[in-house]
Amino acid sequence: MTTPTDSDRNSGWITAEQVGGGYRTSIVARSHDIVADEPIEDGGADAGPTPYELLLGALAACTAMTVRMYADRKRWPLEGIVVRIRPVKAHAPDCAACETEQVGVGRLSREVELLGTLTDEQRTRLLYIADRCPVKQTLQRGLVIESASPQPPSVTAS
Fold first, then answer.
1. Between the CA of residue 26 and those of 2, 3, 33, 51, 110, what are the distances in Å?
2. Residue 67: CA atoms inside 13 Å, Cβ hemisphere, count?
3. How far is 158 from 152, CA to CA, in rounded Å?
4. Where in the chain is the domain with CATH 3.30.300.20?
5. What confidence score (pLDDT) does residue 143 get?
6. How many helices (H) and strands (E) would you count in the chain?
7. Which of 50, 52, 127, 140 matches a 20 to 30 Å C-alpha distance to 105?
8. At what angle do helices 51-74 and 120-130 cross, to 10 degrees?
9. Is domain 50-140 annotated with CATH 1.10.357.120?
């Protein structure tokens, strides 16, 4: 695999690179290196979370961070947040049908546990704020993904 340069890391792009056999994929985001893979039973080496798990992790992390930011601004006694998310149905069938059908798990189950000596009003407000997390709103509204492939360098005859 190629080594990302400093300009790659600071370009705003999240880069995923998969080279060779297997599903292990290196992801670079700013100065962070992450590995994604598929479970052994799906042909991977289980070297990291699956892409779906990374997506759900991003949603869970954003939910927790959004709640934390709000509670800190209000100076509320929030000691911790635990966010649990899982698909209501398995995504493996989607993987098999993605070439010919519209796919997606369609529905997630989420639990938000607030730790600390919060009032009922504070808890209610924080759960409302959890629903305002930017990643959740983005996923619910849908995305337009503009795909482009870099063109290989042109070869000129000499």
1. 10, 10, 7, 11, 28
2. 29
3. 18
4. 50-140
5. 85
6. 5, 5
7. 127
8. 140
9. no
pLDDT of amino acid 132: 96
Strand 108-116, strand 78-87: pairing: antiparallel
Looking at residue 7, its pLDDT comes to: 63
End-to-end CA distance of the chain: 32
Q: Is the pTM of this model over 0.85?
A: no
Helix (H, G, I), strand (E, B) or coil at 79: strand
Res 73: pLDDT: 98
* Predicted local confidence at residue 145, as pLDDT: 87
Q: What is the DSSP letter of 142?
A: -
CA distances for 140 relative to 58, 68, 93, 132, 135, angstroms: 14, 22, 22, 11, 9
Average pLDDT for runs of 10 along the chain of length 158: 61 88 93 95 94 95 98 98 87 65 78 98 98 95 85 62
Q: How far apart are CA 7 and CA 13, in angstroms?
A: 10
